[in-house]
Amino acid sequence: MFTAELTFECYQDTTIDAVDGAITQLIDALRYNGQILGREFPTSMDDGVFITRVVCPEEESLHPRHHSSIVETRLKALNEAGLLAPKIRLTGIDLHSDNTDPCQQPEWQVLYTHYLSTCSPLRCGEHLAPIPLYKLPTPAIGDHQDLLRWQVDWSSTDELQMHGTTLKQACSEVLTDITSPLNHTGWRLAKDIEQESKIPTYYYLYHLADTVKQDEKARPCPSCGGEWQLETALHGIFDFKCEPCRLVSNLPW
């Protein structure tokens, strides 16, 4: 991942509200297109110049060839707010982010995230490295907002079950139950991605030890009931993989 600065300059008299709205809408569009990552984008102001700091998956993530139609619309709207198109300056490699997947086209991919992750929730099956969302076909709604909102829901639920108290049990059940609304939505999104990309796309089903002792290795696929345990865990995480159901899961740790 790379850090960058977007510098917005005023070319005519305007207002703070107009500038703030135009920049915010553009940043949202870039985020929902997968060109920038995270949820916090500090913006500073100095004598008519506004600088927004972002994290990008790749060095050329902000190149116009990756823009969606929504991003193009938000760029044009800057002019109405009295702003020029942003000047982009890469400032370096982000030391706290995962490296973007090097594959041109992965053999398979998996929808996987956790409460510490701010990168793309779509990972290469071979490297478990994040795949920039702008490399996917654009959904009918024009961006990947549904996928990123699911990621926020999943990571927030994961954080509560990891470090919370009052809702810990409830959140654990939501994460592990394949029929929960959270998992239903994620599994559907994985199927949609596979249909659009033509690449086998799996959904990660989080698993905790059951309260009743049982042989975890004999646990069947929760969808089809078939055997799905792998001889060797993938990436030290996925101990189970069901190809027909497009599900992966883990042994409790």
Radius of gyration: 21 Å
- Could you tell me the mean pLDDT? 92
How many DSSP-defined strands?
10
Output the number of helix runs: 5
Helix content: 25-40%
Order of H and E elements: EHEEHEEEHHHEEEE
Summarize the main sheet.
6 strands, mixed
Runs with pLDDT <50, length 5+? none
How much of the sequence lies in strands comes to 15-25%
The backbone outline, from C-alpha atoms, is elongated
Alpha-carbon distance between the termini? 29 Å
Q: Widest sheet: strand order?
A: 6-5-7-10-9-8
Given helix and strand content, the structural type is: alpha+beta
What features would you describe in this structure?
The chain is built from 5 helices and 10 strands. With 253 residues, it is an alpha+beta fold. The strands form 2 sheets. Strands 6-5-7-10-9-8 form a 6-stranded mixed beta sheet. The longest helix has 19 residues, at 145-163.
Main attributes of the structure:
253 residues; alpha+beta; six-stranded mixed beta sheet; 5 helices; 21% strand
